[in-house]
What we know:
The strands form two sheets. The protein has a seven-stranded parallel β-sheet, with helices on both faces. A six-stranded parallel β-sheet has the order 10-9-8-11-12-13, sandwiched between helices. Helix 12 links the parallel strand 12 (292-295) and strand 13 (311-313). The chain has helices at residues 21-32, 53-61, 77-91, 101-114, 131-139, 152-161, 178-181, 208-217, 235-244, 259-265, 280-287, 298-301, 318-329, 332-349, 352-367, and strands at 8-14, 38-44, 66-68, 95-99, 118-122, 146-149, 169-171, 193-199, 223-229, 251-253, 268-271, 292-295, 311-313. It has two domains: 8-175 and 351-367, 3-Layer(aba) Sandwich (Rossmann fold); 178-349, Glycogen Phosphorylase B (Rossmann fold), CATH 3.40.50. Helices cover 42% and strands 17% of the residues. Helix 1 packs across helix 15 (352-367). It is built from 15 helices and 13 strands. By secondary structure, the protein is α/β, with parallel strands linked by helices.
Amino acid sequence: MKSEQKKIKIIYALPGLRIGGAERFTIDLIKNLDKEKFEAKLLILEGASEEAEDWRRELENERVEILDLKKRKGKDKIKCLIRYYKALKAENPDILHAQLFTADLFGRLAAGLAGIPLVITEQNLNYVDSWPRIILKRLTSFLSARVVAISEAVRNYLIKREGVPEDKLTVIYNGTETEKYAFNERSYEQKDKIIIGSVGRLTRQKGFEYLIEAVSKLESGIEIECLIAGDGEERANLEMLINKHGLQNRVKLIGWQKAGEFLKKIDIFVLPSVWEGLGIAVIEAGLSGLPVIASDIDGLREIITDSNQGCLFKPGDANDLKEKLEYLIGNADERKRLGCGLQRNLREKFSIKKIAGEYEELYRKILNGDRN
């Protein structure tokens, strides 16, 4: 009788379990690993938010243990690092896979001390990172076995700004559970009312002020409503802008929503970001069959690769966005063409099952000492 092969044990690390693209991706990746060959646990530094309670239950339903280091926000840094190290020594994983700054930086130190190979996934173009952060990441770069960039845009950023050696970098796109967002009943017929939608953290990066400005300029005779799902530090400023333009009945900040249900309600999806590592919100919208208008920036150009898949507008240009909106609002055939074109392109390219397979292969290479 053959002995049962030992599973490869991966601990995934995040600063906390909260609503966000990196967190959603991590959960989907864990759920889609080959459970015959891999065992996964999630380590979080600062607990879970109330909004992410459904995500916690998803992991519990998959029987994934959550290790909470119970760090107090902005405090307990040294104690948390010690708890991180002790958790790794106790769990003795084959690989630590960390994402986002705190889990990443502490993970470099803890994994280095514990002698555990570290994989880092970089999720964004971190232009808002301070130079002390950049320097810390440069000084500790040697502690990671591999750095995964979620797009070519992120790869180029890491080489130029953070000095990551090219031979340590791998590009693996983020993926999602494509069937979760499929919406076969979508109607592209012209309507008396068109609903524009967007989603993301209410931060400067996401550029929602340009969407609000563009909506204020729309001259279409069709009734328009704009729904922005998400929350964040820019909420008060965006509310002031909505009030300034008298758009209270036209533009609504509706807080976090379940993505699949939200995308079914809208007719056109807009992502007006100033920068993006990739743009998982565009992938989810495209998978649901929505026509997409997005900023013409590096990360988003890797999703919308030609004019048959969506509209790109000049980043930060509300007038250009307004023109693209008016074009799609008044053109049902074009909404259908672009929505269906993008959907076909995304189904295979960003399937989480495909992406999970690429990570599994990377883990094996690291454990086999393969640097290529």
